Amino acid sequence: MHCSLLSALATCFVVNALVTAQHKPRCASDEPILSCSCHSLPSQPVDSCCTETRGGLVVATQIWNTFTGLESRRQIYPRDAWTIHGLWPDFCNGSYTQYCDLSRQFDPKPSPNTTTGTPHGVPVPPYTGEPIDGWFGPHGKTGLLSYMEQYWVSQGDPNWIFWAHEYSKHATCFSTFDTQCYSSGAAAQHNDLFDFFQTAVAFHQALPTFAWLSDKGITPSNTTTYSLSQLQRALTVGFGLLPFLGCSGPRYNETAAGKGSTDDGRTRLSEVWYFYHVYGPPQNLESVKLAADTAGGRLSSCAMAEGAIWYLERAAGSER
């Protein structure tokens, strides 16, 4: 992407968050450089702790699930809110890598189980250590833990396993969350991990997907369906640009309503991905919003037929 084009992108905004990430003292005196700009290229003399040089296309992702499977343990969703999936460091061309530092591999169920997702990649060994949610209290992060337990909720596994997966698979592939960017010593242990979680939370707090949809009359329902165009219009008004909408469930042409159709998009709304470039490290929370197809990617995996998409209610007992 040319520098002249970058300057024409959406206006920079600062995320206002209840839980904010720590600024890195070593970067305080540097003029923030925009990721994926000409000045952020690896060939340029930039500090990779202060400029995101690996995953410059930052993706804040959210999930809509209807049950956790662990309701009996009070692992449930917040009412009237989508939950966090993660914060991902895509390359500037929209491709990505994963599990970039196996010394920080805390995922008990790595998926995929190699660094490339192919049989030829380096195997990612399952983590067998203590649950990472026990690390928050000793480091004074109980407020962060409480927020994550409410808004970063796993399905089918204890929450910490989901958090460990997102950190191990994605955080380790940001240049700005590398351990070399942090002070050493026992007191600083896992600072990169907490910083990643705080940053993901901060981006999430600036993305009220549920409210943006409900403001346009789009609410969870087991009797009413919606069209992709309705969902896209509502979120474009809210975010300012078009995010990626992901659907799961049956393909439209596998349903009775879509029989004989060529529309093979899926029919249950389940994901929204918001795209950014960032000034300096993502921890600064200074970002430029982007449309989902900026790097040539898809805008949706959902069915395009009129009224084809279900935005289902959560199961009884699955919300606070």
TrEMBL record:
Keywords attached to this entry: Endonuclease, Hydrolase, Nuclease, Signal
Keyword Protease: no
Keyword Ribosomal protein: no
InterPro entries from the UniProt entry: RNase_T2-like, RNase_T2-like_sf, RNase_T2_His_AS_1, RNase_T2_His_AS_2
EC number: 4.6.1.19
Signal peptide: 1-21
GO biological process, one term: RNA catabolic process
GO terms for cellular component: extracellular region
GO molecular function term, any single one: RNA binding
PANTHER family: RIBONUCLEASE T2
Family: Belongs to the RNase T2 family.
The protein's name in its UniProt record: ribonuclease T2
Species whose genome carries this gene: Ophiocordyceps australis
